[in-house]
Amino acid sequence: xQGSYRRLAESFRHQCNWNKPHTRYTFAFFTCLLVVGAYxxxxxxxxxxxxNKELPTKIIEIPLDxxxxxxxxxxxxxxxxSALPTIRPRSSSILLSCPHYFHxxxxxxxxxxxxxxxxxxxxxxxxxxxxxxxxxxxRAYLETYVKSFQTRDVxxxxxxxxxxxxxxxxxxxxxxxxxxxxxPVIKSSDYQGLNALKPxxxxxxxxxxxxxxxxxxxxxxxxxxETNIKPWEQLMGDLNEGNKKLRWMxxxxxxxxxxxxKVAEKRVDLLxxxxxxxxxxxxxxxxxxxxxxxxxxxxxxxxxxxxxxxxKIYIEGSAWSVSEKxxxxxxxxxxxxxxxxxxxxxxxxxxMQHYWPxxxxxxxxxxxxxxxxxxxxxEKAQELGxxxxxxxxxxxxxxxxxxxxxxxxxxxSKLLRYKPKIPPKAxxxxxxxxxxxxxxxEKTFMLDSMVKSPKESSPCSMPSPLEPSAxxxxxxxxxxxxxxxxxxxxxxxxxxxxxxx
Length: 501
Ligand SMILES: *[C@@H]1O[C@H](CO)[C@@H](O)[C@H](O)[C@H]1NC(C)=O
Ligand SMILES: *[C@@H]1O[C@H](CO)[C@@H](O)[C@H](O)[C@H]1NC(C)=O
Ligand SMILES: *[C@@H]1O[C@H](CO)[C@@H](O)[C@H](O)[C@H]1NC(C)=O
Ligand SMILES: *[C@@H]1O[C@H](CO)[C@@H](O)[C@H](O)[C@H]1NC(C)=O
Prior knowledge:
Blueprint (H helix, E strand, L loop, with lengths): L1 H14 L9 H30 L48 H7 L9 H6 L6 E6 L2 E6 L7 H15 L7 E5 L24 E2 L9 E2 L16 H14 L6 E8 L5 H7 L11 E5 L2 H6 L13 E6 L8 H6 L4 E5 L18 E3 L4 H14 L1 H18 L2 H18 L11 E3 L1 H5 L4 H9 L19 H33 L1
Parallel strand pairs: 4-5, 6-7, 6-8, 8-9, 9-10
Antiparallel strand pairs: 1-2, 1-3, 2-11
Helix pairs in contact: 1-2, 10-11, 10-15
Bound molecules: 2-acetamido-2-deoxy-beta-D-glucopyranose (NAG) (4 copies).
């Protein structure tokens, strides 16, 4: 725009030269008029075009309507696709590609790729499921089998309802079973052989290389009231602010961990790496005192205040742990004790790019080497920290978490070989039915994480499945890089031993 103003001023100076001899006034005057006229007409056009471009289509807000839930607990009909004007995608709708970890949607659904999914298979997954969820015409219907631990089921369902508010009418009809317990249960070895049954599709928060469970974002993205962990969107902002306050160089030059060791043997084992009078493995580890913390509302567990060390250890609990994203977000180097489980995004983390691999069977020496290396290669160590937090801030923002759910559910729905119907014992579920009657922190987190308007642009564009060779290469590259760290570590300890002789 500035350029065109300058050009206009130039042309005024040339064409509208009032100092020219009288005889030329008329000519100059008309030319000038022409130029001004032309400018005005184009500039008006210009403005109208840019209005179209810059003002988004009117944002439709869908407030939480608690009036109709007062006595009857029915769901209002105001935010379903039939009640909404169609949302025009933005004119310049260049599709945004999804982050790399969306590839794993194809892998998780591969067991049913050729046969599809029948109702018999889905129903068979009821053995351990906490609930069955059916989506029909953008509405959700729930049959609860067993209440989950804490509010895992509540916030998982809340998340799915927010997805329906975000993409009204776009989430296809489906029927799924969800298990909120930590560890995966659909063992692949039970479904091998020619006459074997097809595995039942079961959604949960994690999987491992011996199971077919389908990984879905965990409840903590919408909040975890029992531990006072805020919805991810807010918490990510807090963590980002915290990072700015304490630079990497000013942080404690040790590896920090704090958590509940009781849930896993390997965590108890990690406690042995703590600093003592005899040894310093560069680790500073702390037990979380759950009873005391519950009493104090988890004030000692403010995650945004836990980015105080240059290195942070991630170690699994009874299965994957929700803490991974909080640790990666710290700007510190994540020391990742070789995991057995994955959740929906962790399979795309790259060793020596997003984290430093720690040997599960030799943790203390591995940690000592990593911290020594980092303190001697501060720039490279900081790069590892920054790469992890930008992965989290960019690829794992809520927009993409919702898009992951959207694509996973859409791909899953494509595999269904039957038309889902409302199970006899199911009840309709909507944000109102959950939030209007909720109390305390539960209500706060629901309102804080509520999707207020449908998204005007389309979901990110889903990557096509990786070729088997590309998938193999990905895994091999990861293993090679871990091997390289192990070799470095071995050399380091040989040198230490030589010096001690
Ligand atoms: C909802 O219930 C409360 C108390 O039960 C009552 O005071 C209020 O008037 C009711 N609102 C509507 C819209 O029915
Ligand atoms: C699970 O499904 C089977 C049929 O496959 C049925 O007999 C059983 O009652 C179901 N269990 C629950 C808890 O609904
Ligand atoms: C680890 O060592 C620190 C420093 O001595 C101590 O404060 C902390 O309680 C120890 N952690 C455990 C789990 O013993
Ligand atoms: C599966 O995971 C286990 C434990 O994490 C590991 O020892 C094993 O090598 C893995 N197997 C394959 C085929 O990747």
